[in-house]
Amino acid sequence: MAGESDGGPFAALDVFVSSQKADRARSLEPTAVGADFAPVRMPSDSRVFSRDARSADLSALSERVANYDLQATLDPKTHTVEGSETLHWTNRSDTPIHAVYFHLYLNAFEGPHSTWMTEKGKSDFRSAVEIKKGEWGYIDLLEISQLGKPIELPIAACPHSAAQISKSCFAHPDDGPETDRSVLRVELPEEVAPGATTEIKIRFHDQLPRVIARTGYFDSFHLVAQWFPKIGVLERRGERGATEDRWNVHEFHLHSEFYADFGTYNLQVTAPKGFTIAASGQRVGEPRETSAGVVHQLHQDDIHDAVFAAWDKYPAPFIATYEGAGSPKVTVETYFPSEFAASAAIAQRATLDSLKYFSDTLGPYPYPHITVVIPPFNADEAGGMEYETFFTTEGSTGPASAYMTLFTTVHEFGHGYFMGLLASNEFEEPFLDEGLNEFWDARMLGDEEVRFDLGWFGKLGFHIPAPTQWLIERMGGASHFQADPLAASSWHRYSSGTYESIYPRTALVLHDLEAQLGGDVLARGMKLYYQRWHHRHPSAADLREALVDSCDAPEEKQLVRDWFDVQVYSAQPIDDLVRSVESVEIVPEPGTELRDGGRVELTEDETDKLVADTREAFAKATGAGGAVFADGGTILRSQTGKPFHPGPFPFRSTVKTQRRGAQVAQTLLVKFEDGREDRVAWPAGERWHKWIFEGPARVESAQLDPERNLLLDVNKLDDGRTRTPDKLAPRRWALELFNWMQILFSLLGGL
Length: 751
Hints:
With 751 residues, the protein is of the alpha+beta class. It has 3 domains: 1-49 and 65-261, no CATH class; 429-572, Orthogonal Bundle (Neutral Protease, domain 2); 576-726, no CATH class. It is built from 13 helices and 33 strands. Strands 1, 2, 4, 5, 8, 14, 16, 17 and 18 form a 9-stranded mixed β-sheet that branches. It has a 5-stranded mixed β-sheet with strand order 20-21-22-24-23, with helices on one face. The longest helix is centred in the C-terminal third of the chain and has 22 residues, at 728-749. The chain is elongated, with a radius of gyration of 32 Å.
């Protein structure tokens, strides 16, 4: 039967335990779950990490479940890699395992009928690069063995019924096309007992694609990423919402990335003489020349991937070091094409700054090395990608290069924490990586303005406003129509646009939560989240609980839980507005009233005379013009700078607000003609509210969210309203337009 998770977690492969064979219980098998699962709401049980290598090796940061010895021989002319791997894998579950699952990511690029290519269709992915004849990529398996016993190579898709699977085959856990070969099921000759470790050897051949997404080549440049058979993650009961031990493996989707267990990686790369190798991990010894080429050795513990770049045109890299509390001495190497030297200097500085910020705010960076790579021109699709201890950024000689290089570098470095050290499941919960990272990046860069050099247009007087990073996040993350919640998977989404909205919307959701909590509550929560879950596999529920546990007051804890329900597990927009600001003078009016113990009726003529007499008497008492002087003889002025002249009658002002989205507590700032200000609370729980203010001065304006704490609000322009129209802004816009028209006509006249 298919195992179900408490609260319906994102289980890629639910467990299938068959008791049909008494002498050999079936191992964990996949069931096709497709889109029929919900976000993880049940916090992980920390006891699932009790079988922890750190108990035996105090230097280990992780359980080191999957340990690889990898060999790669690159032929840059044919763009191929001859590879082999020896994997030592530990069964950390309580279930005997007789079949394991591997990712074969390169097969996403083998033809138009893979899951990745099918989802891509005719749309552009990041750029418009297309694969032409001879530019496809794939991985062919040549030999597989376990403990020296050969395993039959797969030749077909797995049967739909798990009970019918008896040999290695290509699995389709997400109901992708039968022609997809990105997930491999391997039937093992020897069952792996709970807690036991087995050895699997694989020899394989890679044909790298022309780089269109994350990996591949252009000319002699090669980014060799996701290039080896990579074992899936076996999740234990109590981990990420699982109620039974289960495999968590997905097909390679257009918008999904990766999920893997930690281990020790030994990487050997052989490339022709003259090629520079930039790779994850630390170099072991000096490169040595052999008849097959120059051999480079690298090693790193407690990571979950290995990648390298090779090019024969790199100059010497920039090298710098970072030293911070709790971290080893970190060497930063930045590789770049000569024409992107200026970008490389920005990337190097940004990496060092990011090391300090992330180490100070989340936790010390634990690895002694970081490799930064700027791909050459025409290999742009290799830029902006993250791997542990290694990432690629962007370079440019254009006028807008500086900030793009800065932000991309900070962002890709940040993945080293949220994707790398925290090892969140990017298939199922991409917001835990892309979104949290975007939030922390924007937090680091603060209110720094994004300035764009318009070249000769700027010299002619053209300019555009310089937005802050938070404004950029608002432009992409605040909208009425949110088809998918943040906690949805990476591939089952309304559109590519709703996947891309994960980045800015997560940033806004957490920004607004931080503003509502106040102080350093959220900062402490994020630090606790990192401390609890680095080198493990957290879920959305684990993030929520870390934030809850960092709150002091019960109402703060409830705010976090409610916020996750509305903004993470659901997709409700916020759209509060000031509907109207009105004011009337309270003067006598016709009618009856009680006076001196009796009822008196006033006619319209009598009230008109009473009003006129009262105004005249007030003017005589206060001086010409009715000016009233405050202490020291200063005339009170309104917020517009005009003198304030109160009259003999008070005013009744009405401010009406409305909610057209999710409920969120608000502050309303009310400004009066006499310069006074009043802040009133508008708690959650009602769709509209009306305030009435009576006093000697009219309400001049009303503004919701005066500190702009709620960036999720769809339309900030309707957050405020004045009592009378302010024509200053339209006049300025008209003058600006007139100025541009004059410049345009001058240019046309000179032709």
